[in-house]
Amino acid sequence: MAQASARHILVSSEEKANELKTAIEGGADFAQVAKENSSCPSSRQGGELGRFGRGQMVPEFDQVVFSAPVGVVQGPVKTQFGYHLVEVTDRQD
Q1: 52 vs 5: CA distance, rounded Å
Q2: Which of 64, 44, 45 has the alpha carbon at shortest distance from 54?
């Protein structure tokens, strides 16, 4: 069964997600940006979500995690929780 590790940043607006993505692409540290901006409890761990299998996250999130290249920030990804920036840190298909 496919497994992945990922980290994310959750914010309430697409505009904020795009602003943070630009900062990360410009060299800002993902974990630090997560700690300072993410509304998810995972922000305390720099957005780390740990290991999980396919189907354990909401469908929109799952689709990105199991298709995006490892180590490339994706998003904004809209879910019922808000807008996510997602970085797959490891995946075993």
Answers
A1: 7
A2: 64
Tens-digit pLDDT profile for residues 34-62: 999 999 999 999 999 999 999 999 999 99
State the residue for tokens 């999980």.
52
- Nearest Cα residue to 44 out of 58, 54, 29, 32: 32
The tokens for 31 are 């974990």
Q: Which tokens hold the place of 66?
A: 């199991």
Q: Contact 54/1 with Cβ under 8 angstroms?
A: yes
Q: What is the 3-state secondary structure (H, E, C) of the chain?
A: CCEEEEEEEEECCHHHHHHHHHHHHCCCCHHHHHHHHCCCHHHHHCCEEEEEECCCCCHHHHHHHCCCCCCCCEEEEEECCEEEEEEEEEEEC
